Structures are given as structure tokens and as C-alpha cells.
Amino acid sequence: MWRSYGANYQQNCKGFLVRVKLDEFIDELSKIESKNSHISKLVYGNVSYYDFNKENNIQKVKYPGFRKHESFKDESEFRLICYDKESTFNDNNYLKLSSWFYEGIRISAHPEFSLTEYHDFRVDLESKFDVSLELSELYIWYKLKETLKNRIS
């Protein structure tokens, strides 16, 4: 699922899970563009969930990134999409936010990150911001799945 949201879903795109207090985040959204000159457009909102097997149930939306299969409805997802005029797909992209905002934020690395990738991103993130990167709670399960898959092959 994580790879579905990258610019090139064929590649091994890994992202981050960011947990924030929604009301504080919405307050911060109005400041993001002024603090991040590289952002050309910022779109955010709730995701709409559809049964893709019933085409007449699918509403047209301006940004397809806000449409998801109804099987994920329990996520009640809120998304932020930034259009960046400077970065390439392979760049590490960061948003500058107000310093107070980082106090309640939790960031988890994708569970398929290797420990080296996790460490490198953690060092990079902590050197730029007053926030820590957590290893995903699913990390051990991904490693178990990988180990079992290798034993079967």
C-alpha cells in the first residue's frame, strides 16, 4: 500500500506514518506554504472511500489521491499532498513547521526499512528537527514474513 502513493509505484517507495493532533495540524497548515517556498501547491482533506467494483458509486474528484477503496474506511484518513517545484522523486523532502508543533508529533518509518535505512533517516531527521523517528510497530512482522518467504523459496 505504501508504494501506491509514490510518484513511481514500480520502485520500492517507502514512506512514513506521521501521527499528529488533527486540530493542531490544521492550524499549522495555513503557515506551511509561507515557511516552505519550494511548495507550489498544498492540498489537504479527508479521503473518500468507494467500492471500486461498483463504478456508479465512484464520485469524480479533482485529486485522485483523496480516493480510496472502502475496505480501508476504518482508517478515516486525512491526507496532505504537497506539490514541490524544486525536488525530484529521489530527494528527501521535508516540510518546515512551527517549532511548537513537533512536541506532540510521532513519526514511524515504513516497516520495510532496513535498520541501516532507518538509522540514516533518523540521523537526518533529528539533525534538522526536534523530533525522533520510531521503528515501525510492524517491523518485526515484516522481518518474520521475509524470513519465512526465504525459507520457502
Describe the structure.
This protein is globular. It has helices spanning 22-35, 115-128, 139-152, and strands at residues 16-19, 39-46, 48-50, 67-69, 78-84, 106-109, 133-134. The longest helix has 14 residues, at 22-35. A 3-stranded mixed β-sheet has the order 1-6-7. It has a two-stranded antiparallel sheet with strand order 2-5. It has 3 helices and 7 strands. The chain has one domain. It is α/β, with parallel strands linked by helices. Residues 1-10 have low confidence and may be disordered. The protein starts with 15 loop residues before the first strand and ends with a helix.
Q: Notable features of this structure?
A:
DUF2971, three-stranded mixed sheet, disordered N terminus, 3 helices, alpha/beta, 153 residues, 7 strands, DUF2971 domain-containing protein, two-stranded antiparallel sheet, 27% helix
Low-pLDDT stretches: 1-10
The total number of structural domains is 1
- Round the mean pLDDT to the nearest integer and report it: 77
Overall geometric form: globular
Order of helices and strands: EHEEEEEHEH
Distance between the termini: 24 Å
As a percent range, the share of strand residues is 15-25%
Query: Which structural class do you get from the secondary structure elements?
Result: alpha/beta
Please describe the biggest sheet, giving its number of strands, its sense, and whether it closes into a barrel: 3 strands, mixed
Biggest sheet strand line-up: 1-6-7
Helix content: 25-40%
Number of strands: 7
**Count of helical regions:** 3
Q: Using the CA coordinates, give the radius of gyration.
A: 17 Å
InterPro entries: DUF2971
Organism: Albibacterium profundi
Pfam families: DUF2971
Protein name: DUF2971 domain-containing protein
